[in-house]
Hints:
By secondary structure, the chain is mostly helical. The chain has helices at 60-89, 91-116, 123-151, 159-189, 197-230, 234-246, 250-268, 271-298, 308-349, 355-361, 364-375, 379-402, 409-433.
Amino acid sequence: MTSSTGAPARQPGPPQAVGPGAAAPAGPDPGYGYDIARTDPRAPGRLGPGTPAAARPRRRWLRWVLLIGSLLGILASLVVLYLVVIRPLGIGTALVALTAALVPVALVLGAVWWLDRYTPQPRLSLVSAFAWGAIGSVLLSLFFGTFFDAWISPQEETELIDSFLGATVQAPVIEETMKSAGLFALLVWGRRYISGPLDGVVYAALIAGGFAFTENILYFGNSFHQAQAAGTVDVFWQTFFLRGILSPFAHVSFTALCGLGLGIAAERRSLMLYFGLGLGGLSLGMALHALWNGSSFFLPVDPEAPLSGFLRYYVTVQVPIFLLLVGIVLFLRLREKRILRRQLSEYGRAGWFSPDEVEMLVSMRRRRRAETWAGRHGAVARMGMHDLIRAAISLGMERHSVLFGRPTARTRARERELLEQITADRRLIGALTAPVVRG
């Protein structure tokens, strides 16, 4: 094979394998340069030697403006949250309620950590999602809820109806809309944050967990005040049992449906699906929220066992719904592993990864072993291995998403960026772990 100048064209050689016991596969030119032009826009990218990355405009000033604006917004929201939530409860009661609210939110965060650890998301975006749920969505829900309360201003003869409307209309519609606004904002900010259904569920769970955390502080604080007034702690422990033990994932289940819909749409890169599945998931979440809140108005109450009716409803209705959602999430978790193996194998056949590296990248246990091996050569080598794994995961998942749509200049630039990062990390690891030959 010859080039246009008549000189022999340089065949692509597989990159040097990295990892414990890894060796570069045999090839005519082990290295990092690839000079075969891309002929299929859907084929894994191949970079030529010295090929510069696509020029990307620098907008550092915009990042600083957004960062400072976000910090100021968070500080202002914290002040308002203190005035609206903490101050009315009192510092002592707020501390008790905060301690109790840590139990259910710890369960939610543990589940999110397990879901996210296979294809981890940027920490800043995860923290931002939780902050939106705990602060932004709560304050907006209180704001719009005030208008709803004024609209149906309670009258003595309609107090029950007003309570019913508040529980089955106001709370589901306003709260789910405000929580889901954070998901839509993530999509507008950058599609790389939500590129598939599991990403949507992870961010939705964090937003809902943050919302439930603040809401639980209010509920636990009010029940603690009632317990003090009644001279018994039964009211407080009953509230804690219902909200902290039986239903820590209630809000997560509602909002996850919108996240699931938006994630599917993001994976398929379809504007119609964004509206259809996004609004469909939001509506279904509202319906489940209304079903959960409205059950207390229809269940029979036994004076001798006040919770018996609710527990029967909980076991026969809510538990099956929750288990169905858990099954969907577990399926998505396994699906991500299959996707990652398939897409990275494509890059492997193009010479970017050795078979051993593909196996390492799709296995949590082998990833840990690779990072441990690199860590024996110093913190920098370990960080390089960590970054290589992250970049390879992003490469595989984003390629899967691109296959559903038409490759664009942006997706090609992103692929090039990730491949160059992998190349740089590979060189760094190779330099730090290569044996030193003394003369």
